[in-house]
Write a structure and sequence with these properties.
Blueprint lengths: L1 H26 L1 H22 L3 H6 L1 H22 L5 H8 L2 H12 L6 H21 L2 H10 L7 H33 L5 H22 L8 H29 L1 H5 L5 H13 L5 H17 L9
Length: 307
């Protein structure tokens, strides 16, 4: 049963990258992110009240609001922005660097000791990121055109590089914030009821994004497909996903639940291919394999024994 729930969670979180692709173009990153956290709040808040855990949320309202900012509001905006130019599978692969950032921040901030295999894992993971970024931005072709003088506009290579790298930087910034949030939660919110943390972070995010979203609301009413995507993001990919995730943590522990990270890119690429016809390139497969290998080493999931 736990394996089934883990697979369902990976499929749901993988689908979130598809739904962002379907909704971000018409809603924009800010409005879509607000709808996502507001809808999740409406689903989770009654459950929190039924469980009698409102006092736990109120007691840690400030730190939980900060987690909402760095674990939901800002990362959702970053991924929604990236979804307007990156395919679902590629965004999910960059999201899979979250444990790498988490391990690096834990070492620098919390003093976690990194053994040699974990340091090597960090290096391998970030090399995978560089490989994917280089391939996606077509840097080899742009640099060649610049130095050989074949570019039609001498300034265009720099502009093209920015256009290609900006959404990648947004994905990596979101993953970095996820890594920070995990360590902040570990240090300042240990022992807080998971449902209080999940609900409070979404409610705090909704309050923080309400005014910015109003200022960036689309001038025209988006169609049925973007609205359906926003609803699916809010209720399924955030609300229901949190419930599944914390059920797994309570039953089998955080290590097993976090292994969902390794499955999400495969599902995201599959949904993008199935619904939008997005191509799955060899570079994506190789880059994903390198990042996941580095992540497994850096987080200690795989610890090769010495001969």
């Amino acid at each position: 049963m736990d394996h089934v729930e883990l697979g369902c969670l990976a499929a749901i979180w993988g689908a979130s990258f598809l739904f962002m692709r379907l909704g971000a173009a018409e809603f924009g990153a800010m409005a879509l992110s607000f709808l996502r956290v507001a809808g999740a709040s409406l689903l989770l808040l009654p459950l929190l009240l039924m469980r009698g855990e409102w006092p736990a949320l109120r007691a840690k309202a400030g730190p939980i609001a900060l987690v909402g900012l760095t674990n939901s509001a800002l990362p959702f905006i970053c991924f929604a922005y990236a979804a307007q130019s990156l395919n679902a599978g590629l965004s999910a692969i960059f999201n899979a660097t979250t444990p790498l950032w988490g391990a690096a921040i834990a070492a620098l901030w919390l003093g976690d000791r990194l053994a040699r295999p974990r340091v090597i894992g960090l290096a391998i993971g970030f090399l995978g990121v560089l490989w994917l970024a280089w391939d996606h931005a077509h840097l080899t072709e742009l640099i060649s055109a610049h130095w050989t003088g074949t570019a039609s506009d001498p300034a265009s290579p720099a502009l093209d590089v920015f256009a290609f790298l900006a959404p990648i930087a947004a994905c990596l910034a979101a993953a970095l914030m996820y890594g920070f949030s995990a360590n902040f939660t570990r240090r300042h919110l240990a022992g807080v009821a998971p449902m209080a943390l999940a609900t409070g972070s979404q409610l705090g995010s909704a309050l923080l994004l309400a005014l910015p979203a109003a200022g960036h609301w689309p001038a025209h009413n988006p169609g049925a497909t973007p609205w359906a995507a926003a609803l699916a993001l809010a209720l399924l990919c955030t609300g229901v996903a949190y419930i599944l995730y914390f059920r797994l943590i309570s039953r089998v522990g955080p290590t097993y639940a976090m292994s969902v990270t390794y499955l999400v890119p495969a599902f995201a690429a599959f949904w993008g291919w199935l619904v939008l016809g997005e191509a799955i390139s060899l570079a994506m497969l190789l880059g994903c394999a390198i990042i996941l290998l580095g992540t497994a080493l850096a987080t200690g999931v795989w610890a090769p024994r010495r001969a």
